[in-house]
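testing teh design pipeline on a random one, pls ignore if ur not involved
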């Protein structure tokens, strides 16, 4: 099975199996019946695909009790299933970060991250040229992040704030070793959006996704 295609800003998945994996990644654990509806097929057909993926070690079924009645069977991504998505050469990145920290020191590592932050800001800012308002800037940022493999999506809330959701983190391994990556990204978001940005969910701390609430200044 090929890796999920997240190129050119299109968070697409072509085969039924890939679409199921993407569904679990973006929406969390699913019953086969619900997954079937999303895919436009039957619950039994979705269940058969889940069973196939389970044999490959990519998903697993976990029974969950919901009030009175029989437990429902929810399908979850396994660590192997999560690794099916782009991870930006995780092992090599972690090794390099540890080498820099151990041989050159924490200060040098922080300088490298600061340099990356500045380069990222410059690149993102170029994409914001012509954006007339915060709504357009949020939409453009989501497109950029999706193109970079974060499976990003956004929505406008009733109170006039915005929600940016990143369902995947291609630098998860690096961010776990060095949390300054996440700090730098938050700074970049605030600067290019010209807004207040608050992270409310965080993959490196155990959440399923990273979520940002964006408010006008």
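output:
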């Amino acid at each position: 099975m090929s890796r999920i295609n997240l190129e050119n800003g299109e968070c697409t998945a072509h085969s039924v199996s890939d679409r199921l994996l993407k569904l679990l990644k973006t929406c969390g654990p699913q019953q086969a019946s619900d997954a079937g509806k999303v895919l436009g097929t039957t619950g039994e057909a979705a269940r058969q695909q889940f069973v196939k993926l389970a044999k490959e070690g990519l998903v697993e079924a976990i029974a969950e009790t919901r009030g009175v009645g029989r437990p429902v069977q929810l399908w979850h991504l396994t660590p192997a299933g999560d690794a099916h998505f782009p991870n930006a050469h995780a092992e090599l990145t972690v090794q390099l970060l540890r080498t820099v920290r151990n041989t050159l020191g924490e200060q040098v590592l922080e300088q490298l991250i600061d340099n990356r932050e500045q380069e990222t800001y410059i690149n993102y800012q170029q994409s914001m040229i012509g954006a007339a308002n915060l709504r357009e800037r949020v939409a453009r940022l989501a497109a950029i992040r999706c193109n970079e493999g974060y499976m990003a999506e956004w929505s406008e809330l009733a109170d006039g704030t915005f929600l940016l959701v990143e369902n995947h983190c291609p630098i998860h391994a690096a961010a776990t070793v060095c949390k300054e990556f996440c700090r730098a990204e938050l700074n970049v978001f605030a600067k290019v959006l010209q807004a207040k940005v608050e992270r409310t969910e965080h993959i490196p701390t155990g959440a399923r996704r990273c979520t940002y609430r964006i408010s006008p200044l």
